[in-house]
Design goal:
- The protein folds into two domains: 38 residues; 48 residues.
- It has four helices and two strands, in the order ααββαα.
- It has a two-stranded antiparallel sheet.
- Strand 1 and strand 2 form a beta hairpin.
- The longest helix has 23 residues.
- The protein starts with 8 loop residues before the first helix and ends with a helix.
Amino acid sequence: MVGSAGGGRGERAAEARRLPPSRRDQARTVALVLLAGLGVLFAVLNFDQVQVNWLLGTWSTPLIIVIAISFLLGSGVGYLLARRRPGATRSRRRG
């Protein structure tokens, strides 16, 4: 039955075939945990107040906030640039 809460036969079969995580997946998980731990340590060590010249004035701000804002802005710009493709490449893929 479509939309039933119990799930269909296909879902149960997929769950039965699910394999344990590979060594590569485990290594990625360990690397992510280590990076997260380093990020938390970095944040705790950078709570000093610093003077920041924002667009609208100068305020005393915790250094970790300045670092986080810089990271988010950089990630956003990097994401947008990575998604951008030259027009010639896009037209070749369509036709």
